[in-house]
Amino acid sequence: MDIQRVVVTGIGVFTSIGTGCSDFWQALLNGQNGISPVESFDTSKYNVHVGGEIKTVSPEPYVTEPQKIGRTSQLGIAAAKLALRDAAVDLASLDLTRAAISMGTTSGEPTQIEEFDDYFVGDDLESAGAEMLNLYPCHHISAHMASELAFMGRNTMIPAACAAGTYAIAHAFDMLRLGQADLALAGGADSFSRITYSGFAQLKAIAPERCQPFDANRKGMIPAEGAGVLVLEPLERARRRNARIYAEIAGYGLSCDAYHMTGGHPEEAGSVSAMEKALLESGVRVEDIHYISAHGTGTPTNDMHETLAVKKVFGDCALKVPISSIKSMLGHTMGAASAIETAVCALATHTDCIPPTINLDDPDPECDLDYVPNQVREHRVGVAMNNAYAFGGVNASLIVKKFEG
Amino acid sequence: MDTEVIRSKIKEFISNAANIDSAKIADNASYVNDLGLDSLTMLEISVDLESEFDMEVPEEELANLKTIQDSVNLVQKYLAAN
Amino acid sequence: MSQRACITGKGVISSLADHPNKLHHALCRGQCGLNPIQLFETEYIGGEVPQFDARVYLGEGNLRPLDRIAQLTASAAQLALADSVWTEDMRSEQDVGIVLGTVFSSVHTIGAFDQIAVRRGPRFVKPLDFANTVINAPTGQTAIWHNLRGINSTLATGAGSGLLAIGYASDLICSGRAAALLAGGAEELSFEMLFGFDRANMLSDSAESAVPFDERRTGLALGEGAAFLMLEAVDQAQARGASILGIIRGYGTAFDPIRGQDADKLQTAMAAAIRAALAHAEMSIEDIHCISASAYGSPMGDRCEANAINDVFGDQTASLPITAIKSALGETLGASGAIQTVALLEHLHQGVLPGICGFKTPEMGLRLPTSSNKNCTTNMKNGLVLSFGHDGNLCALVLSKA
Fold first, then answer.
1. pLDDT digits over B2-51, tens only?
2. Into which CATH architecture does domain B3-81 fall?
3. Which of C54, C61, C150, C140 is nearest to C102 (CA)?
4. Is 0.85 exceeded by the ipTM?
């Protein structure tokens, strides 16, 4: 059986700076800030108070019965419907038993366990229902998406923390190449979580005001929520229906540091390995990469190690390739991040525009690459790379190519 | 509170977090150089300290806690002040 | 696909045994691993791993960073690595990966972490526990413990996740993306996990009423455990002189969009998953010699499964040996499909399919394959494992002994 080429025909995101595709992309290119004071829970006992919550728009209108499902599922459904609309998929022409969903997440539906914990600590478990079974487990996210869209094909949830979006897209890429599906919705979603916030706050890893990747004064990451879903199809199918094609997924590489749960490998071994595998599979040389969407969380250690990893892989080209972190605008959307960033890579190749790293006031001498500071860059992007690094030492790199036929 | 009670508690926290036999921890062991603790484990121990003695260790003081004696001194200073 | 994925090792931790052969014999003796749960206060019975001590499997290293589910996962992984003779030296030379299926993962740690924040305030949450509040924590901890630097993936696609993990891993092997992968599942019994099932009235209150296909069944008993297969590319296994224990012939999945609320749709989807597995394995119904069923004591679910098997196998159903191990181990959710597969491989090698623990009388009118509480001694090469989630995702897998 011939291995199919896989292309991106639709993009749908749900974030604090915009939803859909074009509004979001415009906001990104304008360097819009999506960070604001946290409102979904009381932060008075914390030393930090900002996050990337989605406040101005709700995913509920996209969902048939929103009261019956968790917020992360709602975000996934909203992004999926936006992506399908963007792809102009005629659902009536689709064999729904071969329409697949592959989603990633870090925490699933954390609000459900947070509510359980409130009841538990308050000695009020009688008031709790069956949500810990019917709403909490993260398989509900992709299952709710499938039920909402009547998709009956392969349905997979890959909770690979902050690399989950890439893992889910990689899985969809494989499914389509192997003929296991005709179309796939692939991406990631996470909703704002008190548990996540408490943990990063305890680690003193949250920046007090702004996320400043690669800046000399960067103080940390900023937890956020969001969803990003791509419509992926085999090229043949996309051509047959005259779909608008954003880009081609060319290959990926996955690895594990096997070193530390929250800190990276001291010699960047795992992140280097993931990049090298992605380059090898896609047949792309480092000279061909015109944009890297960085993991770029804004923590002192991540940004430094990520810079070193890029230098190890790219050699002399490292100083020339533009790299930006959209986490400077969105904060860290956890399981959605690498899905949204893959969408950004597709849009970069499609429009030859590169979003900036905002808040880059004072470059760190140890982070001396071209981080596209503060202003959008117009630049031909033939090939883009997305990198993601997660708790558990999980690393994922994905290559997106400009589609030229 | 008796210094040795405080020290014994700290050794207990180290033992729990790092799986080191309390009896084998020197009274003034250095967290990194002698015990090889990583930053996450040291943070866990300082949270245990805060919890046990109901105190708050300001972030800037955390970085100065290099040895068990440093932690004992900090706890005693806090207890004396309160 | 260039080749099939072969099985070069296996490991299991369960309420009945921590070795596939011991598990097989315990099942053949009709032993029941369901007992009053000791891990937390409850009146329910469950398949708790009794006196689980990870040091038995992992040695005297620092286990503090690993919570119970991570310890179960890493312990089962250790057993599979030892069984497949993937030594520490070999793992430092070559990347071995891991794919883990789970439903609730480290929910107990997540709950305990957050309960401190609620009760005392966020500045008292435990940093070492924060690392385990991500759903892929057991997979990450196991990779660190065993130096597994390859693909590190976690699937949380319902109760069939452990079986799907084996299928997903076999795809990665067959397409050349990985040369060696631990594939399996893990689940930990916890109050947070049990609470929802209790509220949803899905739990049975005795072992007798949690017997698959039996007329007395009223619901499930929960269990815990972990199991892994070591999967490798056949040429790699041969090149290193590994023992090949079996072959993953194929797998199939289906999704029920009504999510278990409509018996007809559920049954149709179950049958679709079985057919998809047979198609992927390029096998016909005559090639299947036995079935390890997913049935766990659900009045509707077990009936749908029996009907789905009938639908696919037709007249062959009556003579097809079937076992169902959840009355012995409990419903171990994400671990279940992996434990079933490890056990089935042993059943195939021993030529004995265990009877269903506690089985007395089939539900009236249920057309079942040859099922009873008696062991079936017969020549079997190919087995079908079914792992059907309770709300939508269904998985079936075909394997052969070598």
1. 899 999 999 999 999 998 999 999 999 999 999 999 888 999 999 999 99
2. Orthogonal Bundle (1.10)
3. C140
4. yes
**Number of Cβ within a 10 Å radius of residue C286:** 9
pLDDT band at B56 (very low <50, low <70, confident <90, very high): confident
Burial profile C194-221: b = 16 or more Cβ within 10 angstroms, e = fewer? bbbbbbbebbbeebbbbbbbbebbbbbb
CB nearest to C135's CB, from A108, A201, A255: A108
CATH number of A6-240: 3.40.47.10
Specify the CATH number of the domain C5-246: 3.40.47.10
**A146·C392 Cβ contact <8 A:** yes
pLDDT (mean) for C141-163: 97
Contact C171 A394 (CB under 8 A): no
Answer yes or no: are the C-beta atoms of A216 and A360 closer than 8 Å: no
A139, containing H or E segment: helix A139-149
Active site residue A332: yes
CATH fit for domain C250-401, picks 2.60.120.280, 3.40.47.10, 3.40.309.10, 3.50.50.60 = 3.40.47.10
| Alpha-helix runs per DSSP H in A283-386 | 300-314, 327-330, 337-351
Cα A124 from Cα C172, distance rounded (Å): 47
Cβ contact, residue pair A203, B43, below 8 Å: yes
Secondary structure, 3-state, A114-133: HHHHHHHHCCCHHHCCCHHH
The token duo for C57 is: 């499997």
State the count of interchain CB pairs (< 8 A) between A and B. 13
What are phi and psi for residue B80, nearest 5 degrees? -65, -40
